[in-house]
């Protein structure tokens, strides 16, 4: 994420994400008689239960391939979580003469014979996201064991002070997915050391949310409603099923996830899910496309794979690989409900106190508070004065600073300058700019156009429940943004003009 420019985005609400349904497709795609022309790349994705594949992976890969090779064709199929279907799709691509195949395997063990046969025919296979068995040309994914550790750490943090004595339920991923045991291994390396006990654990075939819900129900029946304190879920889809089962029984405990799916993020904002794991799909997808095109053209690509990995069975070693990092996504719900009788330090760490041997460490908290306020150039007379003595602007920046104690990557501010005077508003906007300079992404929800013009890079406008446009603030006039907000560009007159123009063009 450090390679991406963080921007301040202004919106009147969250932007909805459109979800595409995966097309399973018939095995083989185009005519079986096509022997290939050296300009075709096969793309086989595993399933459509996880929204990322059709919404992000496929279009990003296809777009990057087109950018690098205008006359290249991508033959795509989705196996809908069926191993035999994917085998037919793979074999058909080989029969058609496709020389490079990007494969995200349904069942990594089953691919060994496919890949070996393809290799004998000179077909190069790039393993995408999941490491397939066989003589793979290259592998692009994430450090999946580290992701498991992040999940374990996220759950420990959500459990708080009672983590060391907590009973935890683990709902793991599909046993046919090579990433699932790595997530599990990483999570266990944290949870086995930092929680009381793993009291129930199940692997879920096909990452099925429905099956995860059933297993969670079985765990509740077995352990009782008070028999566990938190739930590890290997991904967001299953977390949704788990939370449904918990809600039916009236149980509220921390539940984690992975993939930063829209539904998962919405549950986090509602307080139903504690965290998810954000993995940058674009770099992973684009690197895979670059390798595939280079293999097709016979160009060098080794610089794209700085490390090597061994297959899960241990049979295939030294596979060139690129592994990306991931990040925990959680919330720090913030408002101005500061405790007037407490000082700045106590308010900053309220509910997140630093402890040493069970005792609150006032010295460490004061030091951390001063460092944080200095970093943000926040001017407070003293960190030990009650917040009741602070101005409105100072109270607002203290409230924002409190959200930064957990070092979040994204800060969402909802109308932070409401009811503030000019000088106090300037303090808050200065803080927004410093957040950006310090590497935080900032989403500012506001109706104040002066705030928009002052600090925003982009403005996302939501009108009548729909995304009405995303604008570059510096390159867009005040009137254009207001028109998008008010709908001035979408009315009976403008629609009539559009129809009239369309008729004229047709003639």
Could you characterize the architecture of this molecule?
The protein is built from 16 helices and 19 strands. It has helices at residues 52-68, 83-95, 111-120, 144-159, 179-194, 209-223, 236-248, 262-270, 281-297, 344-348, 362-375, 392-403, 422-437, 449-455, 478-486, 492-506, and strands at residues 8-11, 40-45, 73-78, 100-103, 124-128, 138-142, 167-172, 197-203, 230-233, 276-279, 307-309, 319-324, 326-329, 355-356, 359-360, 410-414, 441-445, 458-463, 466-472. It has a 7-stranded mixed β-sheet, with helices on both faces. A 5-stranded mixed β-sheet has the order 16-17-1-18-19, covered by helices on one side. The chain is globular.
Reconstruct the topology from this structure:
Elements: E1 8-11, E2 40-45, H1 52-68, E3 73-78, H2 83-95, E4 100-103, H3 111-120, E5 124-128, E6 138-142, H4 144-159, E7 167-172, H5 179-194, E8 197-203, H6 209-223, E9 230-233, H7 236-248, H8 262-270, E10 276-279, H9 281-297, E11 307-309, E12 319-324, E13 326-329, H10 344-348, E14 355-356, E15 359-360, H11 362-375, H12 392-403, E16 410-414, H13 422-437, E17 441-445, H14 449-455, E18 458-463, E19 466-472, H15 478-486, H16 492-506
Parallel strand pairs: 1-17, 1-18, 2-3, 2-4, 4-5, 5-6, 6-12, 7-8, 7-9, 16-17
Antiparallel strand pairs: 10-13, 11-12, 14-15, 18-19
Summarize this entry quickly.
By secondary structure, the protein is α/β, with parallel strands linked by helices. Helices cover 40% and strands 18% of the residues.
């Amino acid at each position: 994420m450090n390679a991406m420019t963080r921007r301040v985005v202004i919106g009147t609400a969250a932007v909805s994400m459109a979800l595409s349904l995966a097309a399973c497709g018939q095995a083989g795609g185009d005519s079986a008689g096509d022997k290939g022309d050296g300009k075709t790349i096969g793309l086989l994705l595993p399933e459509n239960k996880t929204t990322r594949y059709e919404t992000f992976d496929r279009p990003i890969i296809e777009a990057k391939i087109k950018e690098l090779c205008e006359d290249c064709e991508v033959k795509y199929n989705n196996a809908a979580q069926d191993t035999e279907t994917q085998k037919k799709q793979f074999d058909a691509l080989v029969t058609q003469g496709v020389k490079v195949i990007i494969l995200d395997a349904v069942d990594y063990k089953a691919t060994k014979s496919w890949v070996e046969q393809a290799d004998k025919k000179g077909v190069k296979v790039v393993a995408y996201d999941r490491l397939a068995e066989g003589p793979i040309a290259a592998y692009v994914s994430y450090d999946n064991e580290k992701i498991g550790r992040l999940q374990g750490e996220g759950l420990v943090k959500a459990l708080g002070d009672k983590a060391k004595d907590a009973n935890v339920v683990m709902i793991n991923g599909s046993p046919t997915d090579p990433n699932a045991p790595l997530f599990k291994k990483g999570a266990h390396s944290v949870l086995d050391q930092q929680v009381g006990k793993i009291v129930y654990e199940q692997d879920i075939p096909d990452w099925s949310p429905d099956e995860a819900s059933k297993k969670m129900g079985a765990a509740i029946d077995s352990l009782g409603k008070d028999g566990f304190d938190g739930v590890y879920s290997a991904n967001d889809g299953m977390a949704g099923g788990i939370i449904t089962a918990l809600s039916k029984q009236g149980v509220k405990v921390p539940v984690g996830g992975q993939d930063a799916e829209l539904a998962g993020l919405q549950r986090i904002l509602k307080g139903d899910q504690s965290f998810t794991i954000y993995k940058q799909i674009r770099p992973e997808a684009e690197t895979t496309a670059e390798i595939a095109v280079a293999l097709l053209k016979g160009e060098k690509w080794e610089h794209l794979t700085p490390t090597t990995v061994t297959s899960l069975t241990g049979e295939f070693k030294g596979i060139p690989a690129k592994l990306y990092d991931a990040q925990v996504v959680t919330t720090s719900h913030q408002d101005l409900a500061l405790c007037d009788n407490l000082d700045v330090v106590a308010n900053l760490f309220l509910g997140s106190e630093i402890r040493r041997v069970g005792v609150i460490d006032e010295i460490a908290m004061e030091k951390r508070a001063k460092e944080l306020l200095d970093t943000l150039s926040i001017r407070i007379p003293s960190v030990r004065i009650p917040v009741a003595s602070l101005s409105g602007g100072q109270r607002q920046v203290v409230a924002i600073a409190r959200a930064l104690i957990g070092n979040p990557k994204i800060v969402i501010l909802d109308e932070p300058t409401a009811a503030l005077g000019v000088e106090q508003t300037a303090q808050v906007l200065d803080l927004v700019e410093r957040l950006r300079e310090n590497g935080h992404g900032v989403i500012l929800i506001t109706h104040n156009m002066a705030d928009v013009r002052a600090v925003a890079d982009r403005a996302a406008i939501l009108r009548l429940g729909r995304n009405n446009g995303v604008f570059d603030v510096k390159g867009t006039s005040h009137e254009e943004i207001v028109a998008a907000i008010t709908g001035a560009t979408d009315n009976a007159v403008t629609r009539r003009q559009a129809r009239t123009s369309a008729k004229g063009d047709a003639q």
